[in-house]
Design brief:
The structure holds two protein chains of two kinds. Chain A is mainly α. In chain A, about 75% of the residues lie in helices and about 0% in strands. The two termini of chain A are about 50 Å apart. By secondary structure, chain B is of the alpha/beta class. The chains are: A mainly alpha, B alpha/beta.
Chain lengths: ~350, ~425
């Protein structure tokens, strides 16, 4: 659509008014930026002359490296040190060196598959609970996310609305999610009120081990699904339509097309989703702690909560034991990620 | 003229400094509430501030769990508040401020409060240091909903007997619950401290004469089994112990809402019950049930302590000195419906219209002489930190079916030993 002469004149006049208003601001900003560049140049120019182009790369990486060093590397090193110290004092200089005592306490077991035979039984309960949670939760989460992404990738009515609906829980704080569901599921909660009003009997959702585990997984899937659906949806939309057309010409039905076109081409995205969801599942804490507190008993006690309780919440604060447990958890995550990356690379080759 | 302007400018510059110099010193108290005590303390401190304009006291009210879990970390990290209300006296040993050289009359402190409380705050080498004062004494014991007994037409067991066992109470409460269609018969707070009273009454002893701690006694086993039976029979709200994870959890909402016949808690609930239940039903305190170890609850209480990290020790001492005055502490006690920690407050005129509250406080007061030596040793001996939580946590695992009784008791012993060994490192 072209502009009429008068509209064009109005447009030009309003543009020139804006230019007149902002011209001094633009000039000022320009002067400031060029002044700043000049100041930086005073330092950078001789620095580059001295260090060379390769050396300058390190200069540019340095600020980020400092932040990473102070907030990631230093705590990791401290954690490593704490893992080999004992006592209840907080500051490193007040803590006696105990060598591998904390690690040997964690591994003092007749059989690690039977936590009751372990000296630190809660560690192994948490470890097995976490492993079970990771396998089931990640499996369901990815399956549900994939199904939802596939559905939302179709030309369905109110697609934008449904995309927002599925993404909405991601925006909620994990503690809020936990408290809302606790109110719904507790003995005198909303769901039991509904069951009773329909003539049923109250169900002990949060004090029965099986129910509690089921709801913990359900809620975490509900809360995180939107995020992974979004990533998978982006992956699905990146698959060129021509592949599906070619598959259709070859006579492939929908399942064959999904199996031979969608899944292989979605694999790189899927690997990202698997790694992210696995790491998140191993680190589960913020949603479960206010929801079940690890109970009933230790049914939903996961590794991060074990570390938190051992190091910070118990009356006797065993920082060394907590640090040793977090060291083992970090090694587990490292191994898991390495395996994933290797699997990802080998699938790229094939 | 120029000199005049210079002097005027100088004066103008010094005015903000002068104003700044008059800014009051700000002190912070970390506090938690069971009832209205925070409100009463604020009221008392407002009066103090009016008389002492150079000091301003801020009360930071936090949940009780923060006092147990976060305050120790804060203190250990050197970020302690100036003062705090604490229940685990030994947890902060070595971090307190010695008020003896700072308070106006240390002898008054010595004669006004039980030496056992002062000792519980001290560690070896602290001598006669004064680190705080008890602003509340507590004793654990059971509450009953008498209205439900009357509606069921069942006699309250303690009306006709001075020595009612836990089994007899449980049976009577279960009968009342069944007859009145009340959801729950009996409950106990999720707390090792709360379980200890019934355990000692049932004959448990934790402390041996040689100073060792032996947890595996028939009295403790009987008590753990009793609570396990409550859960197995469905006569207790399971969410208190099984639905709250790893921290303290009270059962008071069930009692306040008339859903519970008998509730094992303590004297700190009286103020809250007098307002939240009021006269919705007749509630009262009954004597602690009797067993092989007598009839004992657990002593306890809260202590207002000062921390050594404070930048204003003199001002902290002035606030503490104000709060320990007889008239101030008497008003605090009468308005909060607490049992006083002060030994010489004289006759108290509790500020409540509730006859039930008055009777409950009298009953709790009559429980104090019955408290056993083991109970005092647990509360004031400085080893409660190693004992209370293992009882709570391992009992929870027993209830969840994760441990057998033998395993649970063995784990309690191991946890106690480990905690003491770690603390000694």
């Amino acid at each position: 659509m072209s502009l009429t002469t008068s509209e064009s004149q109005d447009h030009h006049s309003s543009t020139s008014i804006l230019e007149t208003i902002f011209a001094p601001v633009n000039r000022l900003l320009g002067a400031l930026v060029s002044g700043l560049i000049n100041v930086v140049d005073i330092v950078m120019h001789p620095l580059q002359a001295r260090l060379g182009v390769r050396g300058m790369a390190y200069v540019f990486v340095l600020p980020n490296l400092l932040i990473f060093g102070i907030f990631i590397m230093l705590p990791m090193l401290l954690n490593f040190y704490y893992a080999f110290t004992g006592g209840t004092n907080l500051f490193p200089q007040d803590r006696p060196f105990v060598g591998g005592q904390n690690l040997s306490t964690l591994f003092a077991c007749d059989s690690i598959f039977e936590p009751n035979t372990c000296r630190e039984d809660l560690f192994w309960r948490a470890a097995w609970n976490t492993l079970g949670y990771v396998v089931v939760q990640v499996g369901i989460l990815i399956l549900m996310s994939l199904i939802t992404a596939l559905a939302l990738n179709q030309r369905i009515a109110a697609r934008g609305f449904f995309r927002s609906v599925f993404f909405y829980p991601v925006l909620l704080s994990p503690v809020v999610v936990a408290l809302i569901w606790k109110w719904i599921l507790q003995q005198d909660g909303l769901l039991n009120a509904l069951i009773v009003s329909l003539g049923g009997e109250k169900i002990p959702f949060l004090v029965n081990a099986q129910w509690a585990q089921t709801w913990v997984i359900f809620i975490s899937v509900w809360a995180q699904m939107g995020f992974f659906t979004l990533i998978l949806l982006a992956g699905l939309q990146a698959i060129p339509h021509e592949f599906y057309e070619a598959a259709a010409i070859d006579g492939a039905n929908r399942w064959q097309s999904f199996k031979s076109v969608t899944l292989p081409l979605l694999m790189p995205t899927m690997f990202v989703v698997i790694i992210l969801s696995l790491i998140r599942a191993v680190q589960v804490f913020d949603q479960v702690f206010p929801f079940t507190g690890g109970g009933p008993g230790t049914t939903t006690l996961y590794m991060v909560q074990y570390i938190y309780q051992t190091g910070f919440a118990n009356q006797t604060k065993e920082y060394g034991l907590a640090a040793a447990a977090s060291l083992l958890m970090a090694l587990f995550l490292l191994a898991l990620t390495t395996l994933q990356l290797r699997a990802g690379r080998s699938s790229d080759i094939t | 003229m120029r000199r005049f302007v210079a002097i005027a400018l100088l004066l103008l510059l010094t005015v903000p400094l002068a104003v700044q110099a008059q800014d009051p010193v700000e002190l912070r108290i970390t506090w938690y509430d069971d009832g209205n005590e925070g409100e009463v303390l604020r009221d008392l401190l407002d009066r103090f501030e009016a008389e002492n304009p150079d000091i301003r006291v801020v009360i930071d009210t936090v949940p009780y769990s923060s006092i147990l879990e976060q305050l120790p970390l804060q203190v250990e990290a050197g970020e302690a508040p100036d003062m705090a209300r604490v229940t685990d006296f030994a947890a902060f040993r070595g971090h307190y401020l010695d008020l003896r050289p700072l308070v106006a009359d240390a002898a008054y402190w010595d004669e006004s409060f039980p030496v056992a409380v002062f000792d519980a705050l001290r560690q070896e080498g602290d001598g006669d240091a004064l680190f705080g004062f008890p602003n509340q004494f507590t004793v654990t014991g059971p509450f009953i909903n008498r209205t439900l007994f009357e509606q069921a037409g069942i006699e309250v067991p303690s009306d006709s007997s001075d020595a009612v066992t836990w089994d007899e109470w449980t049976a009577a409460a279960a009968e009342v619950a069944a007859a009145t269609e009340t959801p729950y018969a009996v409950a106990i707070d999720r707390s090792g401290h709360r379980v200890a009273g019934p355990a000692f009454s049932n004959g448990a002893t934790f402390f041996e004469e040689d100073g060792s701690i032996v947890m595996d006694t028939q009295g403790l086993r009987d008590t753990l089994q009793m609570i396990a039976d409550w859960h197995a029979d469905g006569i207790t709200p399971a969410e208190v112990w099984l639905g709250s994870g790893g921290s303290y959890s009270p059962a008071d909402p069930y009692f306040i809402n008339g859903q519970l016949v008998m509730y094992m808690s303590g004297s700190w609930q009286v103020g809250r019950f007098s307002t939240d239940i009021d006269d919705a039903f007749d509630w009262e305190v009954v004597p602690n049930p009797t067993g092989a170890g007598g009839s004992t609850g657990m002593p306890g209480g809260t202590v207002m302590v000062a921390f050594g990290d404070t930048e204003h020790p003199e001002e902290v001492a002035r606030v503490m000195d104000y709060l320990v005055q007889v008239d101030i502490l008497k008003e605090f006690t009468e308005r909060t419906l607490f049992i006083p920690g002060h030994l010489n407050l004289g006759e108290l005129d509790y500020q409540t219209d509730s006859a039930l509250a008055g009777a409950a406080l009298s009953m709790f007061a009559s429980e104090v002489p019955k408290l056993s030596d083991q109970a005092y040793e647990l509360q004031y001996g400085g080893q409660a930190f190693a004992i209370n939580n293992p009882i709570r946590d391992r009992l929870t695992q027993l209830l969840a079916g994760e441990l057998t009784m033998d395993d649970a008791v063995a784990r309690i012993q191991q946890d106690v030993d480990d905690a003491l060994a770690t603390a000694a490192q």
